[in-house]
Specification:
Shape: globular
Number of strands: 3
CATH topology: Rossmann fold
InterPro entries: Chst-1-like (IPR007669), Sulfotransferase (IPR005331)
GO molecular function, one term: chondroitin 4-sulfotransferase activity
Pfam families: Sulfotransfer_2
CATH class: Alpha Beta
Distance between the termini: 37 Å
Structural class: mainly alpha
Protein name: Carbohydrate sulfotransferase
Organism: Caenorhabditis tropicalis
Strand order of the largest sheet: 1-2-3
Strand content: 5-15%
Amino acid sequence: MVNCVVQKSMSTMMTGTMCYLYNETEYEASGRSFDDEFNTRFCKEKNEFFSVNAVRDAFNISYVKTDWTFSMITRDPIDRFVSGYVDRCVRLLQKNATSQCNGCGLNMTCFIEKEYERLMEISFKRKTRRTMEDAHFFPQVWHCDLNEEAEFYEFIQYSNNAEDRLMPQLEDMLKRQKVPRGSIEFIKNELLNKKSSHSTAGTPAKRFYYSRLVKSPYLLEYIVKMFYYDFLRFHYELPPGF
């Protein structure tokens, strides 16, 4: 199995899932939880690659139908953006990380306008230096060579309550790939019963900024322009009026 890890789309938990499956015995013996992957990755440089081509070359994976699955957790673009903003901007600013988030402080309008400009510059190859914020706010379709590899992917939709939508899809894929029942139960326990330490779901800040964004036609227009192809590719509804 190959999983495309995308920031703010359960990246920490999926990193843990794939690391666990890489060496279940060693992972369980370590006493780690998937959330520990946020600070120190147990499988760093062991089962990680920077491109799909590198994975294909390493394991000689054909471009025709094989026993391999390529998967990616996708997330509603508005929900993902707000989660990223609260995590990378609001929380870090409270820790006096004043250089974060385009220097905009808690001004979400300023951040969105500047990040849109950055995305346009990168898109037209006028800027190549990328920040940690860019990694969290890049369109999902910009990840994992989707422009060339999309037909090989299985897209699993994120849900704040993993039991609603995400886990049934993921469990189905794991079963098809013949992952043992005990291993699936271990993964389910991590995903359903343990919350990532940098999750923003259900927090007052997430509710506040989400409400502010969806009530602003001006800001929503920027979000739609930034993530238009995420909406289309992953079948998420555009905001009313767009």
